[in-house]
Amino acid sequence: MIIDHPLLGPRDSSEFTYMGDAALIDRPDPEAEDAAQAFYEYAYLRDNPAGWHRELWFHEAGDRSWLVVTRNTLTHEISKVELARDVARSRGRSR
Amino acid sequence: MHDLTPTPALGYEAQTIGTVTITENSGVALASVAARTGHSDTCTAELTSLLGAAPRVGRAVLHDPEAGFWMGPDQWMIGAPMATHEDLADQLKARFGTAASITEQSGAWVVFDVTGDAMPDMCELLCNVAIRRMTAGDVQRTVIHQLGCFVIRRASDDHIRILGPRASAGTLHHALITAAKSIA
């Protein structure tokens, strides 16, 4: 499997480490009323889709950037690769 | 005034095996620059005034006395001669101020220079880097012998510089020697 790194170009997936569902970027608000339930779901509950899935990959043997990879879990086709920080910032984080 | 020499990680003599020479280079002072949130442009401007240009993705700027290369988004490594720039991190901190986090890196990395005609053959055994397609100033972070290393293609066609974790300098050196012997 080849991951087309947004900065470095196509790189072998063996250079990367899978770091889980990209939904982990959306950490719940610890001040919210339902924080306990929200953190329980955030920490333990995962979807396991057969099909398109947004995932975090860490370029461990490369530039150490975190990526959001949109991958089809049935075919391993990759339709989109973004820097995780760009995704996080587009949702109002890190400002 | 004492004339002190920097302490090498290994202190081994340069070794020539076949056509390849492996030398530990203890004369490089290193410090990393990581732009703080929102200060990317300030850092780029400071790097330009320091090096002549800010290193682009996957590239080094080979400049004297300071040189630098791109490590990751908004992160760069700066190197300079140990003899004159042992306090490189302090010098950079004074320059970058609060725009960047500066970390002393001389104690974290061991630097090996590998030269010789068979260097590309050796490099191909060691790491997943398209060494024959690299041009002077290309830098890639990769894995050598399970160790995260930077491979820098220097100005001369048969010269690469390898930065590896200093705490595993002996292991990395062993890997280099083994690869050199197997192609000799």
Task: Write a concise keyword list for the protein shown above.
heterodimer; A: 95 residues; alpha+beta; Folate-binding fold; four-stranded antiparallel β-sheet; two-stranded antiparallel ribbon; 2 helices; 35% strand; B: 184 residues; Gyrase A, domain 2; Alpha-Beta Plaits; five-stranded antiparallel β-sheet; 11 strands; 34% strand; globular
Count of separate DSSP helical elements of chain A: 2
How do the SSEs of chain A run, as a string of H and E? EEEHEEEH
Largest sheet of chain A: 4 strands, antiparallel
Order of helices and strands of chain B: EEEHEEEHHEEHEEEH
Q: Looking across the biggest beta sheet of chain B, what order are the strands in?
A: 1-2-8-11-10-9
What low-confidence regions of chain B span 5 or more consecutive residues with pLDDT below 50?
A: none
- The total count of strands of chain A amounts to 6
So, CATH architecture of the largest domain in chain B?
A: 2-Layer Sandwich
Most residues in contact, chain pair and counts: A-B, 15 and 13 residues
Distance between the termini of chain B: 45 Å
Helix-strand makeup class of chain B: alpha+beta
Low-confidence stretches of chain A: none
**Mean pLDDT of chain A, nearest integer?**
93
Task: Please give a structural write-up.
- The complex is a heterodimer of chains A (95) and B (184).
- Chain A is of the alpha+beta class.
- Helix content of chain A is 18%, strand content 35%.
- The longest helix of chain A is centred in the middle third of the chain and has 10 residues, at 35-44.
- Chain B is an alpha+beta fold and 184 residues long.
- Chain B folds into 2 domains: 16-26 and 108-183, Gyrase A, domain 2 (2-Layer Sandwich); 28-104, Heterotetrameric sarcosine oxidase (Alpha-Beta Plaits), CATH 3.30.70.1520.
- A 6-stranded antiparallel sheet of chain B has the order 1-2-8-11-10-9, covered by helices on one side. Chain B has a 5-stranded antiparallel sheet with strand order 4-5-6-3-7.
- Chain A binds chain B through residues 7-8, 12, 14-15, 60-65, 83, 85, 94-95, and chain B through 37, 57-58, 70-73, 128, 140-143, 148.
